[in-house]
Fold:
Amino acid sequence: MTEQVIPTKKMPPGLQVENVDDRIMTLNVGPQHPGSGHMRIIVKIDGDYIVDADPDPGYVHRGEEKMAESRNYITNIPHLERPVIHDSCNILYPYVLGVEDLVGIEVPERAKYVRVIAAELNRCIYIQYWLAIYGIFLGHSTMFMWPAGDRELLIDLMEKITGARVTHAYFIPGGVRNDVPANFEDVCLRQVNYFEKRIKEYADIFYDNPILKARTEDTGVLSREDAIRLGTTGSVLRASGVDYDLRIKEPYDVYDELDVHTNVLKSGDSYARSKIPWLDMLESCNIIRQALEKMPKSGSIRTKLKPNPKGREDEVYRRVESGRGSAGCHIISRGKPEPYRLKLSVSSFRNLIALPYLLKGEKLGNMPAVYWSLNYWPVEADR
Amino acid sequence: MSVIAPKFRLGYFLKGIFDNAFWILTIVTLAGIPAIQIVLFYLELPVIDGELLTAFLAFTWLFNPTMQVPLIKALIYSDLFRIVAFPGFGFAALIAAGTIFVERKMLAKLQLRVGPFYCGKVEGILQLAGDGLKLISKEIIIPAKADKPLFWAAPVLFVGTAAAFVALIPVAPGGWVVADLDVGLLAVFAVIGFFPIITILSAWSANSKFPFIGGIRALHQMVSFEIPLILSLLGVVILTGTLNLSEIVESQSSFPWIIFMPIGAIVFFTTMLAELERIPFDLPEAESEIVAGWLTEFSGMMYGLVQLGSYLKLYAFAALFVIIFLGGWTGPVFWPPLETEIITEGIPIPNYAGDPILTVNAPGLPLLDQDPNEWVLQQQGELQYTSGQLLVSGVIWFVLKTVGVIFFILLPRGVFPRIRLDMLLHIGWYKLIGLSFVNIFIALGLVYAGVIGPGGIL
Structure:
């Protein structure tokens, strides 16, 4: 079927010769495609079957890591949350933890609880946005509107806490930027309870829908071994049956004092991968309620930092469980106010690695379901 | 995006009004009046007071009260009116416009949002007009390597075929249908068979990858669902023994066929959703997979025409479901028989055989109940309802049932995700064809058991 094309001239280094086959059609899914996000997947199809898929991220590369080298530890905060503005607390969390290690300051107890609450609220906000897009990718417009509408509840709550709707810049080394409002516990508990009631209704219209089950079950199956071998994290890993949650395995801040359960499904298909984040949201509601109960009612929320703090000469790597998986931050300090090198290790890129393996041999109609079930955020992968 | 409203200036405001008035007057004078005259030349005009009316005096009679009523009545019974306005294109387009409005608002309520709100002040009723104006004013872009004649022809052909489908639908008793064919159902099948051809033509002529995949998907879907569609309607044909749609409706005067063939109705409804490319089966336009499918390269009013055609098709399919399974226009007549009232003064109607002086004025039905012969028969007890009464109540029942079916066609859009091509083909070839054969056997069983048909109990 495929004929090897022999180049007549000597090829320049780096160029590849592509075999041309009349049966194979190459589709550029993205970057201007309603089903791609800010990236491109070069899909080769034979009839309705995908023979090859090549994800091509990099359209929204911002150079966050290079930018971080010329700013000090405080001014790095607002721009490091830009890769995932919907999950801005969680993507900033490892950086803040790392800087606290380097500078060597303790965080007050109340600030730790506020951080956990904000991080869990942000996880729910991110997952609602992700779920809305998953719904519209499968042609389910109600599942687009409902999460996008219910997300507003938590966004209002985060606005009350931080003053910003999406880009909070709330976590700083030494605590949080400002204290929560006076009646915060009551408002938060009420809104989270209502939110939990709402998201339980998603099962009726989406997760128990027979067409959705028939469509996404047994598609894009990632086995347990492959999930570990390809280095996937977060919901993708847990959907394949690996019980791995950094909130339990490497508890940071006060997660070891809270009763955190993790959700694991065995099947590893698109359906399981899409259901794990929804179960995570329900678990987040539990964590928020516990944290509200155990939170000290008064106290400091921030340890004072020196202006322009200098880190000690060392390197640290801290990671947290973000909405998509483990988000890590590696900081190398040379004793200056700026980091010498800062590396963001994000889960989106790790999960994207699995995409070509999952899409090979699938039908074209399964592409959006498999692609978006990887819990992938294109901007985060590009940094 | 924020738009700063320009400061109000009286001069610009007056200039706007005068400009509008100038253009309206110019266009009406140069285009509107000649158009009305040309239309009137092709109408069969009545003779009033022994005077044959001509189109040259059109505006004279339109303002003469003694001539208005017979003139409008002549217009209503002309072929042009049937094609353009009532059982044909205009009626269908009106229902299609209502469908789009209801779809938007209903889906918005289902999804906990507001929907169109500002355009037209009241719940966004003019949103569709705004969208239409926007589509008309947009540039039509044609791909550089497209096959231009075919690409241009496709939207027009699509609307034309949908209008041909609408023309076969009988709306009210007494032959209120554009084309009353004895093989009406066969003609419907023939017209439905055109849609995949138009789809693949437009997809192929666009010379682009995503339309091509969409066109191939549409071809798969429509061809494999046409077989169960045709088979599911054969049960009714066996029971009634006719292909004429009006006669199929008249055979359901005591009960609708859905009572005996619920399986056929379910199969037909499912195939209908697939033929209309509505949501569980909207694979040819699957947004997240193939951009907009075979509609990807259409821009401006070409896209608008395809949308118009697809909503006309939606009305026609819903009406076909009503005609075949729900009894069409049959239902209780709303108006009671008229009371005795003989009026000797009024507009004489010379076209009828009865007393030309006798005129009947029915309240609310000035145009339809003026047939003296029918009225006399009704007074003598030989005719239960006049044709005007039957027409009005028939149309009301027909519209009510059609709107109900359209509602159930729209509903899955908010409830179901899209299915996959192999699942679709599996449903079409294995399940629906089997079910439609079951339906045919039920119909044959009913005929042989002597329940329905010649010499049957019912």
